[in-house]
């Protein structure tokens, strides 16, 4: 079933009960990061749907009062057995909510609590539209279109058809840059990651997953709009900054941060979605595709850094190694 058919089915299940009124996006870590663009999309485009994004344990321990039979709960877990995410899906079903679960593991416990499960593809050779970030966004575009109507639906579908090609070209474009980045920053211990709009979630994700989890490096995300309200005081010529510059409505904030960094910092890596060709996607929806591009491109950056540091991305000292 495609996204449209899935949402038609689930919405049909509650048609006589008032339909879908709430959407809850629930996950942990990198899977939660994959949901941020969808939360931004709903906040931007929805007029009647109530939408919340929760780390799974908080969803369980501080359950929203609106959770019920008119709720759609989307739960994502790559391995499908993350205890917090499984508990969240179980709780959602106990509250009579419709649940869509996403996992890469066909034997996942998560599937037990799914109204509909999506077993997604994974790996560098997969199409990005078949990965969780794009799937979740596509599902929720369908929710919006079927519940409220979405004037830019056709433009969004065009963007989904174009994004793989944009990423393929952009990967070639940054190949040498990634190697230069890795050589220059291989001995650094701290990075600040800036972005805005739908991509702020990926600034957060690159910090906590790619650098902190996978490279044991200190890192922190900063929203480009908040940079000038405190964080810019740590700007100097010794501290590395990575700026993910969006195309779309929030680009002005990224450009302002870039202008300041260009004046007062020296260790700055700018990854510009506009330069990487995302502008071929229709202007009214392009901002929602920035993080899809950034995820794939920043995977190239982190791979180069891991290689030169001789610190494989899979290395862990606590996760899955000790009791927690």
Can you describe this structure?
The chain is α/β, with parallel strands linked by helices and 324 residues long. The chain folds into two domains: 3-147, Rossmann fold; 154-309, 3-Layer(aba) Sandwich (Rossmann fold), CATH 3.40.50.10490. It has ten helices and nine strands. The chain has helices at residues 3-13, 29-33, 36-45, 56-61, 83-94, 132-147, 153-185, 200-215, 251-264, 290-309, and strands at 22-27, 50-55, 71-76, 98-103, 116-119, 190-195, 218-223, 241-245, 268-272. A five-stranded parallel beta sheet has the order 2-1-3-4-5, sandwiched between helices. Helix 5 links the parallel strand 3 (71-76) and strand 4. Helix 3 (36-45) packs parallel to helix 6 and helix 7 runs parallel beside helix 10 (290-309). The longest helix has 33 residues, at 153-185.
List unreliable stretches of 5+ residues. none
The amount of helix comes to 40-55%
Distance between the termini: 38 Å
Strand content: 15-25%
Major sheet size, sense and barrel closure: 5 strands, parallel
